[in-house]
Structure formats: structure tokens, C-alpha cells
């Protein structure tokens, strides 16, 4: 268990020499959320298997088997139909021991069995794996490209000027033949961001199914409870993770007849589960909103090329005197430059942009001169033929 915690710590450990290939929203999805879900899974597992997840009130002769039987075969509560046609708990009555714990009434309050709390740890761990998949895909697509280009230029203090100039020249040599060929690379990253957004929507839906379609209103129910008077509350959250439940234990009597015991069980584990899913309701909602805003930002940068130069200037220390209008670049080139700007030393990145603008204008001049020379060559034979005809 300690090895798992150590690996989780390494996943989110801040290393200033580490090359960042993802933005904050991507990191929240694929690292922070993974650590949260796996950590919560370990916490629930420790409470469930190392602690006492259930404690049933029973006589001494069946005490040894009551807890295990009710945990394995699940416990239940009793509910009634509400105005929306869903089974729920009405206000606590005098005959109710706890919400959902009341005497049976024929045809009015069927049993609502609760079995999913046994699998909370597994579901949390599995969800953590799903959130890590987009990062694994992007890591495969990146293949260490940004790390290779950045080398040691991400340090805030650079002492070896000769080494800096060589590595900066290496970046320029890379961009010379590869300019305009990074579109697929950039859209692979955008595809992973879309996958992050779809994944959090799917996890919200899957969690809602897992919790018997109660998760969608879980956070709203919490707000409703805080606005009600204490004596008029009926705990909607208890429908999902009830702390007090009932259990019916059937055993064989001395004459081989069936003997049934109606037991009252306390589930301390559900206190933890309730808090976990209240947090996850707000966390998933936050991730969905941030991912939606991030995708809108991506769409704007793809559709509005002039905005890209302004975004690149965010990583330049001295912005005055910079004119990036001459820097012709596709969205893929902008994406790679922006990632380099997030990792390079600001001074080095400023010099790199100046060199790219300079090389870009030189290339345009060379192309124009080449076209002009071609036109001259094409025109010379015609002129010579015309001159020969005139002489004749």
C-alpha cells in the first residue's frame, strides 16, 4: 500500500526541470483526478477490509455470522413512491427508527436493496484508469518531441552560452524543413482534450447508473437540505448511502426448520462513501466546465490566426518591438511554438522567435528571387528568337 502511495506522489511531484507537454486542464484530468480517485479507492479499501464496515445488532449466538451474512447478502431499507414516481423516503414518522427503517406495510413500502457500496473501491480505481488513458495516448503521440527540442533550455538560469546557442540552432534547423508539418501533431493533442471532455461526461453518467440514478441530483440535494428546517428534513442523501439499514437473516433451527431474524445494521463505511461522492459530484462538474471552456478556446485559436501571435507574446519577457505578423505559421506550428514557450527560458524563447521571423522573411525573399530568375530564364529564349527573326 505504501508503494502505491509513493507512485501517486511521483505522479504529481513538481519538478521544475520536467518538460510540460500538457496544460492545466489536461493535468487536472489525467494526473490530479487519477491521484484523487486511486487515493480514495485505497482509503475505502482500508476502511472496508481493515476496519469494521458493518455492525449488526443481534443476539450473542448469531453475532459471529450476522455481520458477515448481512455484508455479503446486502442490506435493505423501505421506501414509498414520491410525486415523481420514484422510490424514496418521506419525512421521518414516529414509527420510523431511521429514514427507510419502518414496519412493513403490504404493497406500500417495498424493499430497496443496497449492494453497490461493496464495490465503491473497485469503481473508483477503474475510473482512475479511465482518466489516465488520454494522457497515455498523448504520450504515445508526442514520442518525446518537445523534450528533445527543449533539451536543457528550460532552466531559469543558463550559464553556458555556447551550449545555449548550439541547442537554439538545433531548434532552428528542425523548424527549417518541418515548418507547416505539425498540423496532425496539434490535432492529436486536441483529440486527447476532446477525449478528456467525453470521459468526464461518461464517468458522470456511469456513476449515476452505479448509484441507482441518484448521482445526477446528489449535489443539488445537498443544497436543498441546507435550506430546509431541521424538523422538516428527510435526508435525500440517505437514499444512496444509508447509515442505518435492515437485514433478514435465515438460519436452520434445532428441528431443521427455518428461523428468521430481523436485524438492524449500522454501516459506518457509508458515512465515508457519502462524503466521497459529494466531493466527486462537484469535482466532475468542475472538470466538465473547465474542459468545455478549454475546447472553446482551442476552436478560437484554430479559427482566428491573428490571435496566435498575441498568445506567443505571453512567453516573451520584453514585448515591445516584436512584430510577429511576418511569422507565417500554420496552427500546428503555433501549437509547437506555444509548447516550447511554456518550457523554454523566456530570454531564449524571445531570441528564438526573432530568428524564426528573420528566417521566415529570408525564405520569402529567396522564393521571390527564385521565381523572378525562373521568369527571366523563361523570357530569354523568346527574346532571342524574336531578335533572330528581326535580323532576318
TrEMBL record:
Location of this chain's protein in the cell: Cell junction, Gap junction; Cell membrane
Gene Ontology BP annotations: monoatomic ion transmembrane transport; phototransduction
InterPro entries from the UniProt entry: Innexin
Residue intervals passing through the bilayer: 21-44, 116-138, 276-297
GO MF: gap junction channel activity
Topology relative to the membrane: Multi-pass membrane protein
Annotated GO CC locations: gap junction; plasma membrane
Annotated PROSITE patterns: PANNEXIN
Record key words, sorted: Cell junction, Cell membrane, Gap junction, Ion channel, Ion transport, Membrane, Transmembrane, Transmembrane helix, Transport
PANTHER family named among the record's database cross-references: INNEXIN, INNEXIN INX2
Function: Structural component of the gap junctions.
Protein family (similarity comment): Belongs to the pannexin family.
Protein name as annotated: Innexin
This protein's encoding gene: inx
Amino acid at each position: 500500500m505504501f508503494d502505491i502511495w509513493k507512485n501517486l506522489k511521483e505522479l504529481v511531484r513538481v519538478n521544475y526541470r520536467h518538460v510540460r507537454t500538457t496544460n492545466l486542464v489536461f493535468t487536472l484530468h489525467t494526473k490530479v483526478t487519477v491521484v484523487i480517485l486511486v487515493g480514495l479507492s485505497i482509503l475505502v479499501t482500508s476502511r472496508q477490509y481493515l476496519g469494521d464496515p458493518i455492525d449488526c445488532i443481534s443476539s450473542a449466538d448469531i453475532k459471529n455470522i450476522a455481520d458477515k451474512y448481512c455484508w455479503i447478502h446486502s442490506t435493505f431499507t423501505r421506501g414509498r413512491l414520491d410525486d415523481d414516481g420514484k422510490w424514496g423516503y418521506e419525512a421521518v414518522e414516529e414509527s420510523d427508527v431511521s429514514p427507510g427503517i419502518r414496519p412493513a406495510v403490504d404493497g406500500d413500502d417495498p424493499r430497496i436493496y443496497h449492494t453497490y457500496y461493496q464495490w465503491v473501491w473497485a469503481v473508483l480505481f477503474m475510473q482512475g484508469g479511465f482518466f489516465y488513458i488520454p494522457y497515455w495516448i498523448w504520450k504515445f503521440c508526442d514520442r518525446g518531441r518537445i523534450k528533445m527540442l527543449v533539451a536543457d533550455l528550460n532552466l531559469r538560469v543558463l550559464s553556458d552560452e555556447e551550449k545555449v546557442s548550439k541547442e537554439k540552432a538545433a531548434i532552428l534547423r528542425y523548424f527549417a524543413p518541418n515548418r507547416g508539418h505539425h498540423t496532425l501533431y496539434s490535432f492529436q493533442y486536441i483529440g486527447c482534450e476532446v477525449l478528456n471532455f467525453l470521459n468526464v461526461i461518461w464517468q458522470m453518467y456511469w456513476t449515476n447508473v452505479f448509484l441507482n440514478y441518484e448521482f445526477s441530483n446528489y449535489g443539488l440535494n445537498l443544497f436543498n437540505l441546507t435550506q430546509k428546517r431541521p424538523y422538516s428534513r428527510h435526508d435525500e442523501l440517505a437514499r444512496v448511502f444509508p447509515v442505518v439499514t435492515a437485514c433478514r437473516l435465515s438460519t436452520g433451527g434445532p428441528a431443521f426448520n427455518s428461523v428468521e431474524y430481523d436485524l438492524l445494521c449500522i454501516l459506518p463505511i457509508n458515512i465515508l462513501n457519502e462524503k466521497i461522492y459529494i466531493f466527486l459530484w462537484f469535482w466532475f462538474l468542475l472538470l466538465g466546465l473547465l474542459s468545455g471552456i478549454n475546447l472553446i478556446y482551442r476552436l478560437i485559436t484554430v479559427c482566428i490566426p491573428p490571435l496566435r501571435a498575441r498568445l506567443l507574446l505571453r512567453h516573451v519577457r520584453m514585448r515591445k518591438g516584436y512584430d510577429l505578423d511576418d511569422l507565417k505559421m500554420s496552427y500546428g506550428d503555433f501549437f509547437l511554438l506555444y509548447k516550447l514557450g511554456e518550457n523554454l527560458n523566456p530570454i531564449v524563447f524571445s531570441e528564438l522567435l526573432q530568428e524564426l521571423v528573420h528566417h521566415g522573411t529570408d525564405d520569402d525573399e529567396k522564393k521571390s528571387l527564385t521565381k523572378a530568375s525562373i521568369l527571366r530564364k523563361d523570357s530569354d529564349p523568346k527574346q532571342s528568337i524574336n531578335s533572330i527573326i528581326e535580323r532576318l
